[in-house]
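Write out the 3D structure for:
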Amino acid sequence: MKLVPALSASLLLALMGCAFPITETRLLSGRKVQPLPERIARQPLELALAGGGQLRGWRLAHPAPKATLIYFYGNGDSLWNVGRRLWSLAETYQVDVVCFDYRGNGFSDGAMGFQAMREDCLRIFDSARREGLPTLVMGYSLGSQSAAYLAANRPVDGLALLAGASSFEEVLPSFRARVPLLVRPFTRLSFDPILTAKPQARDLVATVKAPTLIIHGEADQTLPVACGDTFNEVSPAAWKRYLRLPGIGHEDLPMVSGASLPAIQAWVEAATHAGKTS
């Protein structure tokens, strides 16, 4: 059993001859969280996999949605872990949010892989699209790969890339940086061919004309800000915004606050307007 800091301090003071009462309020610690908005209804979703099993996700239904937002999360995350973020996106931007766990991850069956992610993102779009409601796609980190592939292969009404990877070449320095300095001269990295295969995300984004939003932290050490620069350079979208966030790293990229809030609001408005007029 581990002593909480308050109890450890109490024992130390007692040993020093100081009276320090160990009360229930000092011993116990907790964290109060804000309740999820009740008006956002969670609907479970399933898509059958060809080899058996199910791809599982949620639709967070806003009572008066402007659009459907398909969200792809980052590496190491899961639907359960990002649940509060999904609710916040739905509430803040007045959209339905659809998110699925990748194969072999979270609630979904199967085996995770880049080819599976590409196949599944198209099926997710086909099943999530609602008549008369614009469909937007947002990808964070690893999710940018699915978002870019989907936007290049389906008629999405808006594309948002948050802390995304533009190409293997631009991400390569971050892989090398993880090798300890002392052994770098004696280490040669090898990579699965699918990582370098064409098209890369930047090639896909270069074909997307839907309203496009790019947000990247300048202090991102996982996926360098050069990735965001490249996405901005290659995007042919008539409505395009690039938000470079000073001092922001990979894990602390804001999605419903700070400078990201008005940027995403403007993107949703531009994309929903484009979707209703196309």
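Residues 1-28 form one domain.
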